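Agenda item 2: protoporphyrin IX containing FE complex prediction
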Amino acid sequence: MELFFLCGLFLFLSVSVVSLFLLYHHTSARGQAGRLPPGRFGWPVIGESWEFMSTGWKGFPEKFIFDRLAKYAPCQVFKTSILLEKTVVMCGAAGNKFLFSNESKLVQAWWPKSVDKIFPSSASTSTESSKKLRKLLPNFLKPEALQRYIPIMDTIAQRHFALGWEGKEKVEVFPLAKNYTFWIACRLFLSIEDPIEVARFAEPFNDLAAGIIGVPIDLPGTPFNKGIKASNIVRKQLKAVIKQRKLDLADDNGKASSTQDILSHMLLTTDEDGQFMSELDIADKILGLLIAGHDTASAACTFVVKFLAELPHVYEGVCKEQMEIAKAKKPGELLNWEDIQKMKYSWNVACEIMRLAPPLQGGFREAITDFMYSGFQVPKGWKLYWSANSTHRNPQCFPEPEKFDPSRFEGTGPAPYTYVPFGGGPRMCPGKEYARLEILVFMHNYVKRFRSEKILPHEKVIVNPLPIPEKGLPVRLYPHPQTVEA
Ligand code: HEM
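Presented output:
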């Protein structure tokens, strides 16, 4: 009887799976007749998510894109199903231009469903909410404010190198770079500077990024489940900071000021209807900024050390530029805006690093209406994806794309819409200048003190969803000869 039941169950499951598969592919085939872009939706439900993510885990996120472009050439667009959504991937400078210049006309920002769960104050990811955040940011990211941050960043960098690097023979770079960018963010967003308090805040962040861009399966142990738990912990910590700041601002006890950081700014700014933001909304906005600005910039700083260790002639060039700046300073004098303007070669090097290892691989949009692109139909509601690698590693945009060549950024630099580590159009990263400053301040403080050698010469880079050296980039440190002499 039991055997009979098991056979029946097996037959039922087999028929269901095969029917689902056929139904799914029938739908795809019908789409083809309507001149949808070429491509396949893969498996029912999960689609091609596994291929999309596993090429990143193996260190070749561009493979997912380039395999399909080769298959459907000369088309520079293909359809797929990733992160539970039917998606059109638009490649090349033309794809980037189309998506970046049609914001709110044909497309709008969209983040995977997992993000909404991690930011439940809702709408934190919607276009409306993003506009709200963008309105708040200019004050915090305007040129005068950014200029004020340079000496603060330099002070933190000096303390960071003194605490984490100096006197050590070997270090693991990735966790240190995370400490550095997080410390700066805590200081500038929340006025938190005590390294112990910063470390307490930083801990749950490790699980956040992986939870955000992933398959939203909320089961114990999945990255998504860990991401939700981590976001709840950080939100709780942020709410406590917000409550205390409210008291300090109201008390007029001199402990807080209206201009001291982005938190005070958010607490004291009202919208068009005179409404203040709720505590949860503020916590989510700050959480969003910490995520957007922390993991991305720390990935960039990690790859600075990696590439400078691998390319001695590039290290020499950066070092020469930075030591000239350092030598012109009085003892104890901090970096300023003029110094940053002199770091031209260093910034070209950082740009080339972000071309080869873009901290964000790309971004999603949603079609807000049916439209045609490159002769293909894109149905309303489908998701769209732009990929930095589709231009960064394309020989038509960057000849000999695998070659490290900072001179690509001299003069007028790369052609429009080809170099996109910060995106483009109205959704372009609002933290671009802030990130430029913290990366340059990091480079200055690093090359002034050390050169390094990779302990694992062939360490793999994995992308999950940001690129990181698999073992955290362990390096052997050698004190910089000129600093030792000085
Ligand atoms: C190397 C560092 C960074 C890189 C490579 C980077 C890259 C990006 C990219 C590619 C986007 C998405 C654009 C799109 O969807 O088309 C983005 C969005 C964003 N970034 Fe950055 N970012 C960095 C640092 C920062 C920093 C330091 C901050 C904050 C201070 C920040 C704040 C944001 C915000 C708020 C958004 C969302 C904008 C919106 O939804 O309109 N980013 N970033």
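Discussion summary: Residues 1-33 have pLDDT under 50 and may be disordered.
Owner for follow-up: CH.
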